[in-house]
């Protein structure tokens, strides 16, 4: 796979199913336009697909409950994605919203006419909107922001307090696009709207106590669809995401139980009765906290008979599992697996007994799969252009020096070797490498490198204790696991132990710097990207620094110094690439600048590669041309140092 082959990464998203109508959004990087190209496709239940919309920036289809209409998001002009509606049997799409910064998420009402959606509402005079005098200042001429809270910005979005995300309801029968009056005020961001069965309320996720103070906790609030004060519907034990309300008034949601900033916990499936009378319901956990880690990003829970479907992360897989609706702390081993063994279910939906899912494997970016009568069928071939370009990922389990098992993969290039080796470390840290195609590993393997990828302690999907092992203990057992896994991989005769490089981004960048300082003799060179390098400044400059640093390393300045790779920069002697994005607010640019200056001052062969206009997610969702330029730079770096 070449760097420019990212254009072949055609990925289905957001499946929608009603009767025989199955739709999916489809996205791919477009190098010529230098942005993602998006369309909606209709997938035949017997296989194959055809256009439903022609883009170029369409996404997120949803079918009305009665099956008569389809809504989707379309970006036109500079006002972000707007809601469009069209007949389910075909015809012209009609735009029904006109909100300045675009629609974020939406949900059909039970009457198949109204749609609840969330959108950011800017203060007058900001983000291209007119001020009180009717002038529209450019960004550099906007009034100063008055900031009084920690949670004032977030990476990839920007500032928050001057454009809160609010709830709206729009009638899809309107003749002209509208910006209806918001149903929630400007004190909080709300998200994940879900209707009550009677259509009287919209359930939303919002910060605890309606955002009175900064908090990581959230609850479910019921907002009257006709207007009125929100009421607390479900009090959680930590937070909530992606709620579903069933016809009998039962609420299911993904939730985490935690207090303070200690969020490194497995997410699980929770339930509660629906309450809209001002007396909040108490939630009950259905799944075991240690063994079950649900993925809210794969979608809302779905009801299938007397079971509830959720995606669970486990040992590098993302499996569709069935949870009995009357379960109490059910363990993973007791939950039926429907899809996703040694694969990754990225999204799913259901209609009656049918389930449609997007399932990715190590050889594709995702295909639409239909599950019916206990049998699954892959309906699409979106990744067909990648055939012959994807290298094999070999599963490997190693044993760390303290006896702990470490799981991961080695992606092998063509030929007998011995091949130069790249130890590639994921970010998070509470996330995993998965049984799905990883474009970076494929590009490096195609260039002749054996790519070693492990899920050390601190990663998700191997039990909550595994993920929490580095809370307050960064750069201890995770280092042990990574080096033990690398040792096990290097036992292969087709890997060259004398030519090893180390690289990673975010937490992986932190580990790259740490390993270079403490175990630099093992590596020829390093590539550290969008990294945390110094906890003292990260705590004050990162969008999540006010809570993330305290969670993982605490607030003691001496402990922060001890756990900061920058502290040990003088020990680094190998060639070192510092890579960052100018608009990264997760790991701000000062983290890279400080490390580069320290290394350069110490006489290390070092380079600073800085991408303009990009944030923390450059390598995954940045501008396509920047992604290719980054790949080119990576391959040039390793060509110099591992050839």
UniProtKB/TrEMBL annotation:
InterPro entries: 6-blade_b-propeller_TolB-like, AB_hydrolase_fold, Peptidase_S9_cat, WD40. Residues 122-141 are annotated as: Disordered. It comes from the Bacteria. GO terms for molecular function: aminopeptidase activity. Keywords: Aminopeptidase, Hydrolase, Protease, Serine protease. Residues 435-642 form the Peptidase S9 prolyl oligopeptidase catalytic domain. It holds the Pfam family Peptidase_S9. The keyword Nuclease does not apply. This is Dipeptidyl aminopeptidase/acylaminoacyl peptidase. The lineage of its organism: Bacteria, Bacillati, Actinomycetota, Actinomycetes, Pseudonocardiales.
